[in-house]
């Protein structure tokens, strides 16, 4: 039995998408699911929309951490928010993973405050899976850490490699450092500092990569600072939406193209699903002492069900234990360096 707690007050349209997703999830996987949110509001809606399914329970939370809340302040000041209550269930061993479509910074701050980090981790990283030629690639950090140090990105590479092994089934993931050129001499001072650290790890580091190499499927994991990663994420999503809209407009522009469009519709539908962030559901915050997955604020029920699925898969595959084991050699190295006065 895998126990997921879903923040019922996370999405832009909460709580109806969360309730619909909870109903679909328990029907698909047959495991119980916990909704974190105000019981007085959720219980009538749950009865109305899910028929009072006993597999869905409510963890009462009187507060909501909103998109406009200052993350660190709200994490400390809203101790009874749906995020805090849900993450407490995870911390206390009453859930195996926590899923929210709420404020990303709020989720990070609340989780850091209530769960803490895995031993030795300097900064948790928000991680995404992107469609690329021939499969998928893991990108991190995509926004949790705007300002980074080289040692943070080194740990992102370790955690991203483990996640690619667990989530994508790749035995030895190829790791690239996002830069403006393939040569080691390219990039910012941060990239110059990070490159030799990655080269010395023993990971399958293939060097610097540009965005085009990522989409060409030449790496399985791409690491960067949170500022660059967030720009990469938002640009990629915007281009995907733009191209989908342009193709749709062109297909419907005349009778001949409309006929061709009907014939090609199955292929276009497959491409649309491939590029749709809702298909991937949510991104894990790697490096926390618990499995926390964060989805888009605009997530609908389908996206939330996929987010629950991603969290379930990570819990069942033992992602947290794999991360602890992979980070241990680097923790030993840090301890040795500190003892030597490094």
Structural description of this entry:
The chain has 2 domains: 1-121 and 287-319 and 328-342, Isopropylmalate Dehydrogenase; 125-277, 3-Layer(aba) Sandwich (Isopropylmalate Dehydrogenase), CATH 3.40.718. It is 51% helix and 15% strand. It has an 11-stranded mixed sheet, sandwiched between helices. It has 12 helices and 11 strands. The N and C termini lie far apart (46 Å). It has helices at residues 16-29, 39-50, 71-77, 82-91, 104-114, 150-168, 189-199, 211-215, 226-251, 255-275, 301-316, 319-339, and strands at 4-7, 33-37, 56-60, 97-100, 125-132, 135-140, 175-178, 205-209, 221-223, 283-286, 292-294. The chain has 342 residues and is of the alpha/beta class. The radius of gyration is 21 Å and the shape is globular.
Topology:
Elements: E1 4-7, H1 16-29, E2 33-37, H2 39-50, E3 56-60, H3 71-77, H4 82-91, E4 97-100, H5 104-114, E5 125-132, E6 135-140, H6 150-168, E7 175-178, H7 189-199, E8 205-209, H8 211-215, E9 221-223, H9 226-251, H10 255-275, E10 283-286, E11 292-294, H11 301-316, H12 319-339
Parallel strand pairs: 1-2, 1-4, 2-3, 4-11, 6-9, 7-8, 7-9
Antiparallel strand pairs: 5-6, 5-10, 10-11
């Amino acid at each position: 039995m895998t126990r997921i707690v879903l923040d019922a007050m996370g999405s832009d349209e909460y709580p109806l998408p969360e309730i619909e997703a909870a109903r679909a999830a328990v029907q698909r996987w047959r495991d119980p699911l916990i909704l974190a949110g105000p019981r007085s509001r959720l219980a009538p809606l749950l009865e109305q929309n899910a028929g009072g399914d006993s597999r869905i329970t409510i963890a009462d939370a009187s507060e909501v951490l909103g998109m406009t809340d200052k993350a660190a302040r709200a994490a400390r000041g809203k101790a009874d928010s749906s995020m805090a209550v849900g993450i407490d269930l995870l911390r206390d061993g009453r859930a195996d993973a926590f899923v929210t479509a709420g404020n990303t910074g709020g989720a990070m701050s609340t989780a850091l405050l209530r769960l803490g980090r895995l031993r030795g981790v300097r900064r948790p990283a928000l991680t995404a899976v992107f469609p690329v030629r021939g499969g998928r690639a893991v990108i991190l950090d995509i926004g949790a850490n705007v300002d980074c140090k080289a040692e943070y990105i080194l740990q992102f590479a370790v955690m991203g490699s483990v996640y690619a092994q667990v989530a994508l089934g790749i035995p030895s993931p190829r790791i690239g450092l996002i830069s403006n050129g393939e040569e080691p001499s390219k990039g910012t001072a941060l990239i110059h500092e990070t490159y030799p650290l990655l080269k010395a790890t023993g990971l399958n580091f293939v060097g610097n990569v540009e965005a085009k190499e990522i989409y060409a499927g030449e790496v399985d994991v791409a690491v960067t600072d949170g500022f660059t990663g967030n720009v990469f994420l938002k640009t990629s999503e915007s281009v995907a939406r733009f191209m989908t809209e342009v193709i749709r407009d062109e297909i419907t522009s005349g009778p001949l193209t409309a006929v061709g469009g009907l014939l090609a519709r199955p292929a276009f539908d497959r491409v649309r699903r491939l590029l749709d962030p809702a298909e991937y559901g949510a991104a894990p915050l790697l490096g926390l002492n618990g499995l926390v997955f964060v989805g888009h604020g605009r997530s609908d029920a389908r996206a939330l069900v996929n987010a629950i699925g991603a969290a379930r898969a990570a819990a069942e595959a033992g992602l947290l234990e794999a991360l602890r084991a992979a980070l241990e050699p680097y923790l030993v190295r840090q301890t040795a360096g500190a003892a030597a006065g490094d």
